[in-house]
Amino acid sequence: MSADTNVDMPVLQREKRSRLVVPTYTDVSGDEQDDISSTASTIMEDSSIRSETPPTQRRFGRGKNKNKRCKLQYKCTNFIKEDHGQPLFGLHINQFTKEGDPILFATVGSNRVTLYECLEGGKINLLQAYMDPPCVDSEENFYCCTWTFESTTGQPLLAAAGLKGIIRIISPVTMSCIKYYKGHGNAINELKVHPRDPNMLMSVSKDHTLRIWNLKTDVNVVIFGGVDGHRDEVLSADFNMDGSIIVSCGMDHSLKMWKTDHESIQTALKESYNFVQGKTKFNTVFQHFPDFSTRDVHRNYVDCVRWLGRFVLSKSCENCIICWKPGQLCDTDTTLKSKENKVTVVHRFDYRDCDIWYMRFGIDYWQKVIALGNQVGRIYVWDIDTEDPTAARCTVLSHNKCFTAIRQTAFTLDGSTLLAVTDDASIWRWDRVKY
């Protein structure tokens, strides 16, 4: 894989703007004294690009733990380390699988995209590794990836992107990068696939915009941003369950919602399938105005956002994940009242030692468990399988060999395995304890 664009690398060290005192949790470790060794590594050249994270300036005092132990218990079954030594920023597990299919996942960091398989007994098997070769102008640093599949053959596809703002589409079957997309004017921070159409890929960028691409015809269908869009780097976005609304967030402290059921967007999505390179024309839709926007939820960079049914979970550099919804809690109408832009905060999931940005949480497929890693190597796991979110219980997972920032977590489709990637190029596997 190669590219020829030159984009400055985003600096990961940012001034701390706020701090929030949060309660202390009791750590529940998974065999902390076990000497689990590396079982695989990618044999590649070292890279000098590293992520800088601000040191923790102070520790929170310990207090009495009033939370009951969460019923979810995990055991650390394995960890491996990629030999490039650079931060692993992204992790994604292939959810487009059937029962009995192998559990595949991908990691991204430095100029590598690496594919693995989760095996029985806590084993992790290295399958493939892709590297963007160094070029004269700049070197790639991948930040995100996501799985989808080819709609006619059903074969898996992996999209990856990062510093250069180029989306690479990788076919594990042919073991090659089959296509790439250029359009963003800066780094790409997250990729998401439409929940009902595997050909529609969303990308969010440092250039303040979001884009939707048709992987079948290679056309840029919609660009979200502009007049009333994000005023700074867009860090995260997510489709709701039917793909009708996108929620996005970024460094401008704001959260915005964009409806995709507008007539112009729906027409463009359909017509994008009729595009033929060199034979037909296609006019990309520009959506300058979000249907909802607020800065009332967070007071700092918002670096991760996910839908939770009709609610939203968003995270900032303030040591908390906030569950909220637009409008009033009693509102059942899905119409977004953009003129009011009011929000109702339902609950706060507090944690410790996570006041650096680009730290992303994961939710299992059935939306029953949330997991977030912090900057000192611990993972907070909340059991949200309850009608009252205030009753959610928390477990803190730790291991004596994991002490660097955990950039992202992800669950397997059945929720039995939790994976995490860290700043020291390690991949950690935690398996749920069955009773």
Overall description:
This protein is 2% helix and 40% strand. A five-stranded mixed β-sheet has the order 10-11-12-13-17, covered by helices on one side. The N terminus is likely disordered. With 435 residues, the chain is mostly beta strands.
Class from secondary-structure proportions = mainly beta
- Widest sheet, order of strands: 10-11-12-13-17
Low-confidence stretches: 1-67
H-E string? EEEEEEEEEEEEEEEEHEEEEEEEEEEEEE
Give the oligomeric state of the chains in this entry, treating copies of one chain as homo and distinct chains as hetero. single chain
Features:
435 residues, 5-stranded mixed beta sheet, 4-stranded antiparallel beta sheet, 1 helix, globular
Give a nutshell description of this structure.
By secondary structure, the chain is mainly beta.
Give the topology.
Elements: E1 74-81, E2 90-93, E3 103-109, E4 112-118, E5 124-131, E6 142-149, E7 156-162, E8 166-171, E9 176-182, E10 188-193, E11 200-205, E12 210-214, E13 219-224, E14 234-239, E15 245-250, E16 255-259, H1 263-271, E17 285-287, E18 292-294, E19 302-308, E20 311-316, E21 320-326, E22 343-350, E23 362-363, E24 369-373, E25 379-383, E26 393-397, E27 406-411, E28 417-422, E29 426-432
Parallel strand pairs: 13-17
Antiparallel strand pairs: 1-29, 2-3, 3-4, 4-5, 6-7, 7-8, 8-9, 10-11, 11-12, 12-13, 14-15, 15-16, 16-18, 19-20, 20-21, 21-22, 23-24, 24-25, 25-26, 27-28, 28-29
